[in-house]
Amino acid sequence: MDENGATKAAVQAICREHGNDRTRMLDILRDVQRRFGFVSDEAMDEVAEVTGCARIDVESVVSFYAFLSDRPQGRIVIRLCNDVVDELKGMPEVAAAFRRELGIAIGETTSDGFFTLAETPCIGMCDQAPAVLVNDVVVTDLDPDRVRRIVHRLRYNPDPSALVTEVGDGNNGHPLVRAMVRNNVRRAGEVIFSDRMAEAGLQQALRLTPERVIEQVKQSKLCGRGGAGFPTGRKWEFTRAAQGGPKYIICNADEGEPGTFKDRVLLTERPDLLFEGMTIAAYAIGASEGILYLRGEYAYLRRFLEHVLEERRRAGLLGQSILGVDGFDFDIRIQLGAGSYVCGEETALISSCEGQRGDPKNRPPFPAEKGFLGRPTCVNNVETLCKAARILEEGPDWFRQWGTESSAGTKLLSISGDCLRPGIYEVPFGVKLSDVLKLCGARDAGAVLVGGPSGRLVAPADFDERICFEELPTGGAIVVFDSSRDLLRIVSRYLAFFIDESCGHCTPCRVGNVLLKERIDRLRRGQGERSDLEYLERLARTIQATSRCGLGQTSPRLVECTLRDFRSLYEACLGRPDLELRPSFDIRAALRESEALVGRDSVYNWNEQSELPCRTTPSRL
Amino acid sequence: MQNDTVTFVIDQKEVRARRGQTILEAAEQAGVYIPRLCHLKGLTPHGSCRVCTVRVNGRYQAACTYPVADDLVVENDTEELRTLRRDLLEMLLVEGNHFCMFCEKSGHCELQALAYRHSIAAPKYPHLWPRREVDASHPDVLLDRNRCVLCGRCVRVSRDVDGKNVFGFVGRGPHRHLGVNSRRGLGGSDLSADDQAVTVCPVGCLLRKRTAFQVPVGQRRFDRQPIGAEVGAGAGSPQPSESPMQ
Fold it and tell me: Could A505 and B48 be called an inter-chain contact, meaning their C-beta atoms sit closer than 8 Å?
């Protein structure tokens, strides 16, 4: 009873800190989770009561985000990044070491309630994989030896930040960051990484009318850098033209596309450039409020970013009458995510900012018309906003000196996988993939994933294609696989990722991806039939055509492009035609149940060496 | 005045509609049936089943959420779209545990009726046989999640019509399921047997107890006429008395 009362009081205090505002539900629940290690039934009731919504609405949010839990978690939650790249770099051994040291399986909590072991998709550290999150602390470049030392140290000192004995380069060493993360900037291009006069873009913008600012961005032909590539100037224009207000500018720093980590580096090394870009966007569209939606995996950057914002307020770069311009009032807050890939989709991101599940919204209406809280909203990627600031500073022509006809400027690539120099590369659009592979030291590439799992797996025959919206579009993720890698296994792993990260709202994405994976896995077991290839093609087409948002519309792409460009891999999986049985018929599985019922093995014999019944099997079943 | 009406084309037929209507509403008014499952007249569109997928100026859109506009060319009754809809219906059939021959909703079930309309005898996809919870804790209503298609009708009706908020979605991806606004299941919620939320369920997921088989098989809703037949028949007239909003 007493304990219950204490819980109630603590939850009430947390709600009060967030103004008992139901649109701040995500912040409230994150704090409850941190305070109690989970969101209990009692806490859910109390949050519902205080914020004035139904309990089911709270439960709905808790159950959506991977970093929120309705069951008690350990004091220390270790999340192993289960991305494909981490697996290539030795995560299976690292995971085994954690399981051994802690004596628990993935998903379990030690009996003393101290440690929980969990898996999580790409945490944006592919260039220093395998990596894990220990609460909010990033631990990179792991091997089984280090795992042993880490667990030992955590038992001795339960503060995960003590694991950071050596900080990374640049701002990773800032007192408010103190992360072992390395930037790995391998090629610093002129748009993002050159020396510049601080705030020159903003100063220039404020000399122009908002319409002229938009005109400049349109002339630069800047397109969204998150992957979809929508023209930025037009987005700004639509939002400016939209009726009603207040208007919002949201920066999408939820980079969750597996293999992408460029925004991590921008947030660490160029936060002022980003906030400058947001401020310019706010001026252009007429927004008075900005939100930086920071993915939960990058929580280690939060205090640092808050500090940068505070400095900007002090310098008159945020707040009332920015840089002395009367009537230009604008400020930015940080919204932390809680572990969800689909929240990178702009309407899902808006749902999440509103304190709801990260379900995407129906479109139209588009965010420019009805976005955050039903008001005109512009959502831009981190890199896009950084580039917008540079365009205002140097002019659209300067920006257009790089790139191709339809893809102006430069692009930040996050390169990882089987290459010597994983990291960040700023390259002009139009660069050949083969040149990129030379740059990063990929010597035996058998396939390259361009644009992450929602992009395309490129075969060696196409390595001369160029990185640009016309040929090989990408939000920045480039993952190299050498010729020894099992590509169908990789396709299956990425499908598992989409299945986990689907919001589950629409039928094709929720069910279709499960069906795709089922059939790919059956093929991989050697039980494929020729008709399965057509089955996969049609299923992929249906999912792509009928899904509601970008997640489902792109999730079948790897299946599609591998069926086209790596067809021999599929052909090799087709069952042997000389068998008596259809390859897809798994006789072992079919017999297992009846064997269990009768309590003895069936008379059917098979050769234990082969995956399938051997042809000498007598046909007396 | 002119601003309030738009003219668009669906299946080669020119249709006049009120601005602000969705393609599905406008088509229906003009006597063109677009198959749908999650949609229910009078409710905020959900856009989840995707059965109403049409092509709008060549692009795939859900007819239940897409607003009409001048010069839209909508394809609806084409072989390609019927194929896509068949795929979606089959996905729903293998996703849950649907046993039409034993289900008391058989003949009243919109999923079953749509499957028949699309000539689905047996789905081509493998059954996923999920484990789903049945909630029989309410004295008058049974919640059998095995048959839930996540259409969200009960969620919307309970919130917007009954004013109760009894239902919501919990979990994500394939684990998304219907949740109840109570720690003790449906019996602990303030759902009552005559809530509209119970009647709008298109499948056999929410059932009023002790009412099964009151209408004999053979005389049930879709025994009389196939789903969608009412739309072409009385073009321009409002839908039969199905909507809770009337």
Answer: yes
Amino acid at B243: S
Three-state DSSP state, B76: coil
Provide the pLDDT for residue A549.
97
pLDDT at site A109: 97
Task: Write phi, then psi, for B223 (nearest 5 degrees).
Answer: -75, -30
Q: Is B50 on the interface with A (CB under 8 A)?
A: yes
Side chain identity at A210, as an amino acid letter? P
User: Which pLDDT belongs to residue A577?
Assistant: 62
Closest C-alpha among A468, A490, A346 to residue A418: A490
CA distances (Å), A541 to each of A360, A497, A535, A555, B33, in order?
A: 21, 19, 10, 11, 24
Cβ–Cβ below 8 Å for A511 and B180: no
C-alpha to C-alpha distances, B22 to A372, A452, B54, B114, nearest whole angstrom = 23, 35, 12, 21
pLDDT of residue A230: 96
Fold of domain B5-77 = Ubiquitin-like (UB roll) (3.10.20)
Q: Do A63 and B66 touch (CB under 8 A)?
A: no
Say how far apart CA A261 and CA A584 lie, in whole Å: 40
CA distance B204 to chain A (A): 18
Token code pair at residue A171: 């701002």
- Taking the Cβ of residue B91 and every Cβ of chain A, the question of whether any pair is shorter than 8 Å is answered with yes
Contacts 24+ apart (CB under 8 A), A212-216: A213/A280, A213/A283, A213/A284, A213/A392, A214/A240, A214/A284, A216/A391, A216/A392, A216/A395, A216/A396
Length of chain B: 246
Q: Is A424 helix (H, G, I), strand (E, B) or coil?
A: strand
Instruction: Give the nearest partner residue to A64 out of B51, B66, B172, using CB atoms.
Output: B172
List B residues 55-74 in contact with A (Cβ-Cβ < 8 A): 60, 62, 65-67
Strands of chain B, DSSP E: 5-10, 13-18, 53-56, 59-62, 73-75, 134-135, 141-144, 167-170, 177-180, 206-208
Nearest to A56 among B50, B62, B168 (CB): B168
pTM of the shown model: 0.94
Low-confidence ranges of chain A (pLDDT < 70): 1, 577-580, 602-621
Inter-chain CB proximity A510 and B66 less than 8 Å = no
Q: Is B65 in contact with A547 (Cβ distance < 8 A)?
A: no
Supply φ then ψ for residue A424, to 5 degrees: -100, 135
Q: Which CATH number fits domain B82-214: 3.40.50.150, 3.30.70.20, 3.40.30.10, 3.30.465.10?
A: 3.30.70.20
Whole-number Å distance between alpha carbons of A534 and A526 = 17
**A445-450 and A423-428 strand pairing:** unpaired
- Per residue in B182-230, pLDDT (tens digit) is 999 999 999 999 999 999 999 999 999 999 989 998 999 999 999 999 8
pLDDT at B161: 97
Would you list the domain boundaries of chain B? 5-77, 82-214
Test the B interface: residue of A53, A499, A511, A541 with most B CBs within 10 Å: A511
Q: Which residues of chain B have pLDDT under 50?
A: 1, 234-246
Q: What residues have CB less than 8 Å from A312, skipping those under 6 apart? A: A272, A275, A318
Asked if A548 and B62 come within 8 Å (Cβ–Cβ), the reply is yes
Q: Tokens 């819980």 identify what position? A: A7
**A511/B92 CB distance under 8 A:** yes
Q: Which of B21, B23, B50 to mutate to test the interface with A (most CBs of A within 10 A)?
A: B50
Residue A602 to residue B202: CA distance in whole angstroms: 44
Contact: A506, B168; criterion CB under 8 Å? no
- The residues near A65 (Cβ < 8 Å, ≥ 6 apart) are A26, A29, A296, A337, A338, A339, A340, A358
A119 in helix, strand or coil?
A: strand
Contact A510 B60 (CB under 8 A): no
